[in-house]
Amino acid sequence: xxxxxxxxxxxxxxxxxxxxxxxxxxxxxxxxxxxxxxxxxxxxxxxxxxxxxxxxxxxxxxxxxxxxxxxxxxxxxxxxxxxxxxxxxxxxxxxxxxxxxxxxxxxxxxxxxxxxxxxxxxxxxxxxxxxxxxxxxxxxxxxxxxxxxxxxxxxxxxxxxxxxxxxxxxxxxxxxxxxxxxxxxxxxxxxxxxxxxxxxxxxxxxxxxxxxxxxxxxxxxxxxxxxxxxxxxxxxxxxxxxxxxxxxxxxxxxxxxxxxxxxxxxxxxxxxxxxxxxxxxxxxxxxxxxxxxxxxxxxxxxxxxxxxxxxxxxxxxxxxxxxxxxxxxxxxxxxxxxxxxxxxxxxxxxxxxxxxxxxxxxxxxxxxxxxxxxxxxxxxxxxxxxxxxxxxxxxxxxxxxxxxxxxxxxxxxxxxxxxxxxxxxxxx
Amino acid sequence: xxxxxxxxxxxxxxxxxxxxxxxxxxxxxxxxxxxxxxxxxxxxxxxxxxxxxxxxxxxxxxxxxxxxxxxxxxxxxxxxxxxxxxxxxxxxxxxxxxxxxxxxxxxxxxxxxxxxxxxxxxxxxxxxxxxxxxxxxxxxxxxxxxxxxxxxxxxxxxxxxxxxxxxxxxxxxxxxxxxxxxxxxxxxxxxxxxxxxxxxxxxxxxxxxxxxxxxxxxxxxxxxxxxxxxxxxxxxxxxxxxxxxxxxxxxxxxx
Lengths: 428, 255
Hints:
- Chain A is an alpha/beta fold.
- Chain A contains 16 helices and 10 strands.
- Chain B is an alpha/beta fold.
- Chain B has helices at 14-26, 54-68, 70-79, 87-101, 112-134, 155-165, 206-220, 228-234, 250-254, and strands at residues 2-10, 29-36, 46-49, 138-140, 143-148, 171-175, 180-185, 188-193.
- In chain B, β7 (180-185) and β8 (188-193) form a beta hairpin.
- Chain B is elongated and about 65 Å long.
- At the A-B interface, α1, β1, β2, β3 and α2 of A face α5, α6, α7 and α8 of B.
């Protein structure tokens, strides 16, 4: 099989992996070629609007496992192939030198056993790092069940390592991926977390100690293949940030590829809107100081398709508003719908110089369409009388539904998720 | 101050602009507009040609740094790379206000003069960020060559990034719009002006590498999520010319 065919097959097999980011570590000139950028760099955008930053391929799509949701499961009849470590390293270098990519993102099916697969990946990464003196970004997937020693070797060469948690709960994992277990996934995660702690200690003693996965760890899970609720997913996400100190948790809307009685029917549309809402909530957890149980609750456990999680929180907490833009603390500004991290920082900067009115706030990038119900400027509101949650809800959802190209009925929006687009930046 | 409206014509360099500021203060002539020589079109306004005098420029530069800090000097220097019309007037207004307010001018984001210049800078910064990713090299002999067509003069802003990343590689990035080229070879780099460069042809097996890249690009997209508008908002059509992966899009032809 020639390289072109191989690359096509192994890319096609890897496309459902979401974490194509190159951020988190800043490294200048090394002995050889390459550097990394703290914010990450997108090199292209594919036809689905998702950014391409890394050469995202599987090392091989041969697999011993038979996970129901996976395109590469053992029982599927698909063309199978594998790179050799040198082939993949060479390809990465050729692409990198032409500035096509920021680095390599390598994952793999399980051949023979997890350790054997890990060794192949390590061989490839070693060629890149030591033979070609490649100083760019490498993101490597840890195969669940691999030994701790191998994880350590990989983590010291890669910038980011990740373990896929696959499904949000133990029960759905048992149902859909019987060969994987929650413990089998969480134990390498624990190993990695410990290695990171050890490595940062080493760094204080030895200046040249190689840092373990300097760009942090991430994971991903599939949304919509099992019947877990949004609240469960979000609570798990928060736990992963708190307990395992992950950098990112990614969500991937389930796209039915396999016919299986355990899975949603093959003509189900991918729950893109749900994925979008999860990313919005994920941002609220990471940058806006929210907790999972503020956004959703046991009783109210699914996202409102009509309203983003922040607006939804705000209309349920109307007693905290309106918020005076000229005096509110930074943490409160972040909680106002229509104000993001950037505009909140600008507000803090600008209001030191002059008090802000609505016009000024708009200039700073505050989205008035949403913010107007929740703020006052110099004590004045845009509205007469009090705005209660119900009224704000009506206005906000109205604005949302008329913003599209055509007027959609509420029924359409709630059901036809596929019309909604996910921001391509979500994976960034 | 003399109210007779004039137009300053300068040479387009940052030093030239600083001399415009000098003239504004010392000759008390308020300009209606400031235009670089190559964009000048005759009009009813009286024109004043500002000659670049390095001593004057140095004085103004020193004053800006003294009054507003290095950060603002650098900010002004970057803004001059913008393609926006009237940027020089916005810069002059910013500088004049800055001399009054000092370094805190950069926080006066709602002030109309400051806000206008910040928008200019944001536009520039956004394009700079995009070009870090979408510069594409092809191989010709032992040199890697790229041709770009940005709106703004971003070459000086992306130079550091590429010279760090590919320090051991001989490469050239040619900005076709502005006739500038960044050249890096044997640990040295510089930007040269060149209006018309005949780019060398790619190597024979270059097409094979581009085909591999295109194969990867087409395979990575998920058909069920096809969303060309989203892609276009990140990667506008005007930059597609320089991207080998956008040659023929399989998905575009199907849909």
